Amino acid sequence: MFTGLVEDLGTVTRADRRSDAMVFTVRPAAIRVADLALGESIAHDGVCLTVTQVHRDAYEVLAGAETLARTTLGQRRVGEVLHLERALALGARLGGHMVAGHVDGVGELMSRQDRGANIVLQYRPPAPLLRYIVEKGSIAIDGVSLTVNRVDADGFAVAIIPHTVTATHLGARRTGARVNLEVDLIGKYVEKLLGGYRPKES
C-alpha cells in the first residue's frame, strides 16, 4: 500500500528486454540503496514493482508483460526520471490517499495552464474510468496523490502547487504525454459489492 506522496526521483540507468518483460535498473537520488531489501515493493510512476537485485548505487525491478501492456513503463528509456515511493510502513502517516500501485489505465495530458502559483493540468482518461473520478475526490497520476478540481464528459483537471512541480515530473510533461492513472480504491470496491444487489433485467 502507498500514499501517493512521492518520496524520491529515480533515474533509469538500464532498460533491458527479457522476452516479454523489461528489467529496469534505477538509481534513486535520496533513497539509500543500502536500506533496500530484496522482495520489497516500490512504486515507480505509480506502478508497484518488486526489488529483484540491489547494487551499490542502484537496484533492479522487473516489469512483466501485463504491466507493460497496462502502464507507461514500456515507454521509459535510459535517462528518464521516475517517481519513487516505498511501501507504507505500518503506523506511518497517511498524508495522501490509499494507493495500491495497480494502474487502472493510461491517460493523456490534454492541456496545461500556468496560473501563477498553480499549474492546472487537464487529462483525458480511458472512458470507463470516468465513472470513478469525482470532483474533490482523489486520484493518483504517475503515482502522485492529487485532488480532482473538475470533471466533465471529456476528462478531469487537477492543480499542482510549486512544491509538486519541484518534487515531481508532472509539471514538466508536455501536452500529449501519457500518464498512469489509479482511481479511488474504495469506489471500485463499493461498486463491485453493490453490483450483487442490482435488480435483474427482465
Helix content: 10-25%
Strand content: 35-45%
CATH domain topology of the largest domain:
Elongation Factor Tu (Ef-tu), domain 3
Tell me, rounded to a whole number, the average pLDDT.
94
- Poorly predicted tracts of residues: none
Q: Determine Rg (CA atoms, Å).
A: 17 Å
- Helix tally? 3
Any idea how many domains?
2
The overall strand count is 12
Q: In angstroms, what separates the terminal alpha carbons?
A: 41 Å
Structural class: mainly beta
The CATH class of the largest domain is Mainly Beta
Describe this structure in words.
With 202 residues, the chain is mainly beta. The protein folds into two domains: 8-86, Elongation Factor Tu (Ef-tu), domain 3 (Beta Barrel), CATH 2.40.30; 105-191, Elongation Factor Tu (Ef-tu), domain 3. It is built from three helices and twelve strands. The protein has helices at residues 65-70, 162-167, 185-195; strands spanning 8-18, 21-28, 41-44, 47-54, 59-63, 81-86, 105-115, 118-124, 138-141, 144-151, 156-160, 178-182. The protein has a six-stranded antiparallel beta barrel. A hairpin with a 4-residue loop joins strand 10 and strand 11. The chain is globular, with a radius of gyration of 17 Å. The mean pLDDT is 94.
How do the helices and strands line up, and which of them pair or pack?
Layout: E1 8-18, E2 21-28, E3 41-44, E4 47-54, E5 59-63, H1 65-70, E6 81-86, E7 105-115, E8 118-124, E9 138-141, E10 144-151, E11 156-160, H2 162-167, E12 178-182, H3 185-195
Antiparallel strand pairs: 1-2, 1-6, 2-5, 3-4, 3-6, 4-5, 7-8, 7-12, 8-11, 9-10, 9-12, 10-11
